[in-house]
Design brief:
This protein is mainly alpha-helical and about 300 residues long. It contains eleven helices and six strands. The protein starts with a helix and ends in a 12-residue tail after the last strand.
Length: about 300
Amino acid sequence: MDDIHKAIVAYNEALYQTYKANGLICLSDDSYTYKGVNVLAINNPAVVMAAKSGLIDRLNEVCDELEIERTVKNPNMMQSEIFIATADIKFRLGTLYLYHPYIVTLADSWGYFKGKRHYHYNQTMEDGRFNRELPIAFECLYKYWQRIGDYLCVFFPELLIKQKGAIYFHLPFQHITSKYPQLAVSENFTWLNNFAELTYPAFNKHRKFFVHYWGYDTRHFNKFLESNANDVDAIKKLDEERKNWMPYLKEQLDLCNDGYLRLMNFLNELEISKNAAGEFEYSLLKPAEVIAVPPQ
């Protein structure tokens, strides 16, 4: 084993210890078991229902009409994408946890000039890496929720037609609420819809700023300059902001895992059939008929 390989092994060992110490879990952990649920098999009832009703055939027709590769909208392939997305989030968050103990604490970085205390920001390598990794974590979260929206849309292919294939996370929930209110009473759908309306917008506001305006590194340094070098309250506020990103992102990862179970439970509640006019009709199964185990 050469020195570079040894460094990689040591880095990964430190990363795994960080996962364990901070309770970072993704859907592919524990042999694809989350909260006692086999997350690989949980989508089977919904996919079988969609296939028997002819919905998957209709989905393939829609893909051909919109010139979308069929495998891109294949439920099993999309499920794999969701698993990989949560593993990406876990990796990015683990990396942030590795760097976080070594970032600059601005409140401890000061000196006297002309008899007054002035704060300075001498950025370290670890500090810069933390700042530049943070927006990537937000992008991984964004990708995950986009995949959740895509997966839900598979079961409502007419929305794909309406949007010409351009689906954003919130659209399927709005579509179901307006067109199929009988489905919106599902507890699992309500959880997802509340997340889309109440929690997701605040997260996405942060992401948009980092992606479309300033990166976090630039933003943080500029806020330091704006705070004035001797404003201790403003300096402490900046330190607190960076400290708070870690529990916030950990919560977002947990919401991703729970959101997957909620989505699959909702889809497993669906009764799908085709009427005499060839249109698909949706209703909810009785609770006793739902196969998926609800999140704990």
